[in-house]
Write a structure and sequence with these properties.
The complex is a heterodimer. By secondary structure, chain A is an all-beta fold. Chain A has no helices and eleven strands. In chain A, a hairpin with a 5-residue loop joins strand 7 and strand 8. Chain B is mainly β. In chain B, the strands form two sheets. In chain B, strands 2, 4, 5, 9, 10 and 11 form a six-stranded mixed beta sheet that branches. Chain B has a five-stranded antiparallel beta sheet with strand order 1-3-8-7-6, with no helix packed on it. Chain B is globular, with a radius of gyration of 13 Å. The chains are: A mainly beta, B mainly beta. At the A-B interface, strand 4, strand 5, strand 9 and strand 10 of A face strand 5, strand 9 and strand 10 of B.
Amino acid sequence: DAGVTQSPTHLIKTRGQQVTLRCSPKSGHDTVSWYQQALGQGPQFIFQYYEEEERQRGNFPDRFSGHQFPNYSSELNVNALLLGDSALYLCASSSPTQLPQLYNEQFFGPGTRLTVL
Amino acid sequence: SQQGEEDPQALSIQEGENATMNCSYKTSINNLQWYRQNSGRGLVHLILIRSNEREKHSGRLRVTLDTSKKSSSLLITASRAADTASYFCATFHRRGNEKLTFGTGTRLTIIP
Protein backbone atom coordinates (compact mmCIF):
# COMPACT_ATOMS: atom_id res chain seq x y z
CA ASP A 1 0.00 0.00 0.00
CA ALA A 2 1.69 3.22 -1.20
CA GLY A 3 -0.19 5.48 1.16
CA VAL A 4 -0.92 9.06 0.17
CA THR A 5 1.49 10.40 -2.41
CA GLN A 6 2.06 13.99 -3.50
CA SER A 7 3.99 15.58 -6.32
CA PRO A 8 6.16 17.44 -6.75
CA THR A 9 8.15 17.41 -3.51
CA HIS A 10 9.43 20.94 -3.94
CA LEU A 11 8.45 23.76 -6.25
CA ILE A 12 9.75 27.28 -6.80
CA LYS A 13 7.58 29.86 -8.56
CA THR A 14 7.54 33.62 -8.97
CA ARG A 15 4.79 36.03 -8.01
CA GLY A 16 1.88 36.07 -10.42
CA GLN A 17 2.49 32.58 -11.74
CA GLN A 18 0.13 29.64 -11.44
CA VAL A 19 0.88 26.29 -9.84
CA THR A 20 -0.70 22.82 -9.81
CA LEU A 21 -0.06 20.33 -7.04
CA ARG A 22 -1.08 16.68 -7.24
CA CYS A 23 -2.24 14.08 -4.75
CA SER A 24 -3.03 10.38 -4.99
CA PRO A 25 -5.08 9.06 -2.08
CA LYS A 26 -4.44 5.93 -0.09
CA SER A 27 -5.88 2.81 -1.65
CA GLY A 28 -9.56 2.47 -0.82
CA HIS A 29 -10.02 6.15 0.04
CA ASP A 30 -12.27 8.40 -1.98
CA THR A 31 -12.17 11.69 -0.06
CA VAL A 32 -9.28 14.14 -0.39
CA SER A 33 -8.63 17.19 1.75
CA TRP A 34 -6.01 19.86 1.19
CA TYR A 35 -4.24 21.88 3.88
CA GLN A 36 -1.81 24.79 3.81
CA GLN A 37 0.88 24.95 6.47
CA ALA A 38 2.89 28.15 6.72
CA LEU A 39 6.27 28.01 8.41
CA GLY A 40 5.90 27.67 12.17
CA GLN A 41 2.13 27.29 12.02
CA GLY A 42 -0.37 24.46 12.12
CA PRO A 43 -2.05 23.24 8.93
CA GLN A 44 -5.08 25.18 7.76
CA PHE A 45 -7.92 23.53 5.89
CA ILE A 46 -8.30 24.68 2.27
CA PHE A 47 -11.02 22.40 0.88
CA GLN A 48 -12.22 18.84 0.57
CA TYR A 49 -13.26 16.82 -2.48
CA TYR A 50 -15.63 13.88 -2.61
CA GLU A 51 -17.27 12.36 -5.68
CA GLU A 52 -15.40 14.86 -7.85
CA GLU A 53 -17.03 17.83 -6.16
CA GLU A 54 -15.84 20.36 -3.60
CA ARG A 55 -17.72 19.42 -0.47
CA GLN A 56 -16.39 21.94 2.00
CA ARG A 57 -14.12 24.95 1.84
CA GLY A 58 -12.02 26.82 4.36
CA ASN A 59 -11.25 30.52 4.45
CA PHE A 60 -9.19 30.73 1.26
CA PRO A 61 -9.69 33.02 -1.74
CA ASP A 62 -10.96 31.87 -5.11
CA ARG A 63 -7.35 31.85 -6.38
CA PHE A 64 -7.27 28.42 -4.73
CA SER A 65 -9.18 25.85 -6.71
CA GLY A 66 -9.17 22.13 -7.01
CA HIS A 67 -10.30 19.12 -8.89
CA GLN A 68 -10.89 15.46 -8.21
CA PHE A 69 -10.65 12.84 -10.91
CA PRO A 70 -12.68 9.63 -11.30
CA ASN A 71 -9.77 7.65 -9.83
CA TYR A 72 -10.06 9.86 -6.69
CA SER A 73 -6.74 11.61 -7.25
CA SER A 74 -6.84 15.36 -6.82
CA GLU A 75 -5.17 18.57 -7.91
CA LEU A 76 -4.78 21.85 -6.10
CA ASN A 77 -4.39 24.91 -8.32
CA VAL A 78 -3.27 28.31 -7.11
CA ASN A 79 -3.46 31.29 -9.48
CA ALA A 80 -1.74 34.67 -9.29
CA LEU A 81 0.72 33.48 -6.69
CA LEU A 82 1.62 35.78 -3.82
CA LEU A 83 4.67 35.67 -1.58
CA GLY A 84 2.34 34.64 1.25
CA ASP A 85 1.39 31.48 -0.61
CA SER A 86 4.80 30.03 0.25
CA ALA A 87 4.02 27.05 2.46
CA LEU A 88 3.90 23.29 2.78
CA TYR A 89 0.78 21.97 1.09
CA LEU A 90 -0.54 18.77 2.59
CA CYS A 91 -3.03 16.35 1.13
CA ALA A 92 -5.00 13.95 3.29
CA SER A 93 -7.27 11.12 2.25
CA SER A 94 -10.04 9.29 4.04
CA SER A 95 -13.17 7.30 3.50
CA PRO A 96 -16.50 9.01 4.10
CA THR A 97 -18.30 8.19 7.32
CA GLN A 98 -21.46 6.16 7.08
CA LEU A 99 -22.80 7.29 10.42
CA PRO A 100 -22.52 10.76 12.00
CA GLN A 101 -20.96 9.43 15.19
CA LEU A 102 -18.15 7.68 13.34
CA TYR A 103 -14.93 9.26 12.24
CA ASN A 104 -12.62 7.93 9.58
CA GLU A 105 -8.97 8.80 10.14
CA GLN A 106 -7.32 11.10 7.66
CA PHE A 107 -3.97 9.92 6.30
CA PHE A 108 -1.54 12.62 5.27
CA GLY A 109 0.93 12.68 2.43
CA PRO A 110 4.49 14.04 2.76
CA GLY A 111 3.52 17.42 1.35
CA THR A 112 4.71 19.74 -1.40
CA ARG A 113 6.95 22.61 -0.35
CA LEU A 114 6.03 25.67 -2.46
CA THR A 115 8.32 28.69 -2.48
CA VAL A 116 7.13 31.88 -4.16
CA LEU A 117 9.85 34.41 -5.00
CA SER B 1 -7.94 30.56 11.77
CA GLN B 2 -6.48 28.14 14.26
CA GLN B 3 -8.90 26.40 16.56
CA GLY B 4 -6.42 25.39 19.20
CA GLU B 5 -3.43 26.72 20.97
CA GLU B 6 -0.66 24.44 22.12
CA ASP B 7 1.36 25.18 25.19
CA PRO B 8 4.28 25.45 25.44
CA GLN B 9 5.35 26.57 21.96
CA ALA B 10 8.70 24.88 22.49
CA LEU B 11 9.97 22.31 24.99
CA SER B 12 13.45 20.87 25.54
CA ILE B 13 14.00 17.95 27.90
CA GLN B 14 16.61 15.30 28.60
CA GLU B 15 16.22 11.86 27.11
CA GLY B 16 14.33 9.61 29.47
CA GLU B 17 12.26 12.40 31.00
CA ASN B 18 8.54 12.81 30.45
CA ALA B 19 7.17 15.49 28.12
CA THR B 20 3.79 17.11 28.58
CA MET B 21 2.08 19.30 26.00
CA ASN B 22 -1.24 21.04 26.37
CA CYS B 23 -3.88 22.06 23.87
CA SER B 24 -6.83 24.39 24.30
CA TYR B 25 -9.66 24.80 21.82
CA LYS B 26 -12.63 27.07 21.42
CA THR B 27 -15.74 25.25 20.24
CA SER B 28 -17.46 21.95 20.89
CA ILE B 29 -15.88 18.92 19.30
CA ASN B 30 -16.60 15.32 18.37
CA ASN B 31 -13.02 14.20 18.87
CA LEU B 32 -9.51 15.51 19.34
CA GLN B 33 -6.40 14.06 17.80
CA TRP B 34 -2.67 14.45 18.22
CA TYR B 35 -0.25 14.40 15.31
CA ARG B 36 3.53 14.40 15.04
CA GLN B 37 5.49 16.14 12.30
CA ASN B 38 9.18 15.65 11.66
CA SER B 39 11.14 18.48 10.04
CA GLY B 40 8.24 20.05 8.15
CA ARG B 41 7.19 16.82 6.47
CA GLY B 42 3.89 14.93 6.54
CA LEU B 43 1.79 14.48 9.62
CA VAL B 44 1.69 11.18 11.49
CA HIS B 45 -1.47 10.37 13.41
CA LEU B 46 -0.69 9.45 17.03
CA ILE B 47 -3.91 9.08 18.94
CA LEU B 48 -7.59 10.03 18.86
CA ILE B 49 -9.79 10.69 21.87
CA ARG B 50 -13.55 11.08 21.56
CA SER B 51 -15.53 13.77 23.31
CA ASN B 52 -17.07 11.22 25.70
CA GLU B 53 -13.66 9.87 26.76
CA ARG B 54 -11.45 11.38 29.46
CA GLU B 55 -8.20 9.49 29.05
CA LYS B 56 -6.58 7.25 26.50
CA HIS B 57 -3.28 5.39 26.30
CA SER B 58 -1.19 4.17 23.41
CA GLY B 59 2.26 2.80 24.19
CA ARG B 60 4.25 5.63 25.77
CA LEU B 61 1.52 8.15 25.00
CA ARG B 62 -1.22 9.26 27.33
CA VAL B 63 -3.88 11.74 26.29
CA THR B 64 -6.44 13.40 28.51
CA LEU B 65 -9.45 15.44 27.51
CA ASP B 66 -11.43 17.89 29.62
CA THR B 67 -14.39 19.10 27.58
CA SER B 68 -15.56 21.41 30.36
CA LYS B 69 -12.28 23.32 30.11
CA LYS B 70 -11.91 22.70 26.37
CA SER B 71 -8.42 21.38 26.87
CA SER B 72 -6.33 18.30 26.25
CA SER B 73 -2.86 17.15 27.23
CA LEU B 74 -0.39 14.77 25.62
CA LEU B 75 2.12 13.02 27.84
CA ILE B 76 5.07 11.20 26.32
CA THR B 77 6.80 9.04 28.90
CA ALA B 78 10.44 7.94 28.87
CA SER B 79 11.27 10.24 25.96
CA ARG B 80 13.72 9.21 23.25
CA ALA B 81 15.79 11.23 20.79
CA ALA B 82 13.46 10.00 18.03
CA ASP B 83 10.57 11.82 19.72
CA THR B 84 12.09 15.13 18.62
CA ALA B 85 9.41 16.65 16.40
CA SER B 86 6.53 19.12 16.33
CA TYR B 87 3.29 17.97 17.90
CA PHE B 88 -0.12 19.28 16.90
CA CYS B 89 -3.55 18.81 18.33
CA ALA B 90 -6.45 18.80 15.88
CA THR B 91 -10.13 18.96 16.61
CA PHE B 92 -12.90 17.42 14.58
CA HIS B 93 -16.33 19.00 14.32
CA ARG B 94 -19.14 17.04 12.82
CA ARG B 95 -20.99 19.64 10.81
CA GLY B 96 -21.83 17.37 7.94
CA ASN B 97 -18.28 17.14 6.64
CA GLU B 98 -14.89 15.93 7.72
CA LYS B 99 -12.68 18.83 8.64
CA LEU B 100 -9.74 18.92 11.00
CA THR B 101 -8.81 22.18 12.70
CA PHE B 102 -5.23 22.27 13.92
CA GLY B 103 -3.53 24.11 16.72
CA THR B 104 -0.27 26.00 16.47
CA GLY B 105 1.97 23.16 17.62
CA THR B 106 4.63 22.43 20.22
CA ARG B 107 8.21 21.97 19.09
CA LEU B 108 9.70 19.19 21.25
CA THR B 109 13.47 18.67 21.42
CA ILE B 110 14.88 15.65 23.23
CA ILE B 111 18.47 16.15 24.35
CA PRO B 112 20.49 12.89 24.26
